[in-house]
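Saturday, quiet lab. Running sequence design on the C-alpha cells for the scaffold JK sent over.
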C-alpha cells in the first residue's frame, strides 16, 4: 500500500513538469458517511457527518487535468447489534485517517468539471466507542483503497467539488468474534482555494 501511495505521488510530481498549468492550495469540506455492513449480526445505522482538511494540486494535461490531494479526514459510522430479546445496542465508530485521492477529470462547457479516480486511505486512529464485551477488538486495516467520482465547478480561484466515495476494500473483516464486510460510503462536499 505504501508503495502504491509513493508511486502516485511520484507520478503526480513527474507530470507537473509536462503540465500546461499548475495550481495549488488548501481544501476543506464536509462529508456524510454511512457504514455498509454485510452481516447477519449487525445492522447499519444512520448517516453521520464528518470533515476533512488538507491541500490539493491541479495539473493541466491538455484537455484533461490531474488533481491529487492529501487530506486529514475524520468520519463516523453507526451500527446496531441485536443482543436478543428485542434489545438492540447501538455503537459508533470513529475513523481518523489520511486520504490521498487522485482525480482525473475534464471540463465541460468551460465551467463544469467531471472527475473520477482512486483514493488511498491510511488509518491514523480508528476506534469503536464504548464497545462492550460482545462487540470489541475491531481489527481496522492500516490502509484501504477506494474510488471517488463527482462534479466540480471553478469560480475564479475558488474550486467546489461534490463527490461520492466508496471502498474497493474492506475497512475491517470482523467486529469482535463476528465476521463482517464493513465498508465506508460517503458523500463529500469540499471547497478549495487556488493560491497560484
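Result came back. Writing it out in full:
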Amino acid at each position: 500500500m505504501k508503495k502504491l501511495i509513493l508511486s502516485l505521488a511520484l507520478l503526480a510530481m513527474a507530470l507537473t513538469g509536462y503540465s500546461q498549468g499548475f495550481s495549488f492550495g488548501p481544501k476543506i469540506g464536509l462529508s456524510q458517511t454511512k457504514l455498509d455492513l454485510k452481516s447477519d449480526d449487525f445492522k447499519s445505522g444512520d448517516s453521520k457527518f464528518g470533515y476533512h482538511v488538507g491541500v490539493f494540486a491541479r495539473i493541466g494535461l491538455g484537455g484533461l487535468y490531474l488533481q491529487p490531494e492529501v487530506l486529514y479526514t475524520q468520519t463516523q459510522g453507526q451500527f446496531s447489534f441485536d443482543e436478543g430479546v428485542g434489545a438492540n445496542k447501538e455503537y459508533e465508530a470513529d475513523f481518523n485517517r489520511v486520504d490521498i485521492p487522485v482525480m482525473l477529470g475534464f471540463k465541460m462547457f468551460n465551467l463544469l468539471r467531471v472527475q473520477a479516480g482512486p483514493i488511498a486511505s491510511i488509518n491514523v486512529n480508528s476506534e469503536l466507542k464504548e464497545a462492550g464485551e460482545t462487540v470489541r477488538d475491531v481489527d481496522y486495516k492500516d490502509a484501504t483503497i477506494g474510488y471517488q467520482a463527482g462534479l466540480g465547478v471553478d469560480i475564479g480561484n475558488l474550486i467546489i467539488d461534490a463527490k461520492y466515495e466508496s471502498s474497493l476494500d474492506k475497512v475491517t473483516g470482523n467486529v469482535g468474534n463476528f465476521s463482517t464486510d464493513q465498508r465506508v460510503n460517503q458523500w463529500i462536499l469540499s471547497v478549495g482555494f487556488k493560491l497560484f
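Notes for JK: Residues 15-19, 177-181 have pLDDT under 50 and may be disordered. The chain has one domain: 2-193. Ask whether to fix the surface positions before the next round.
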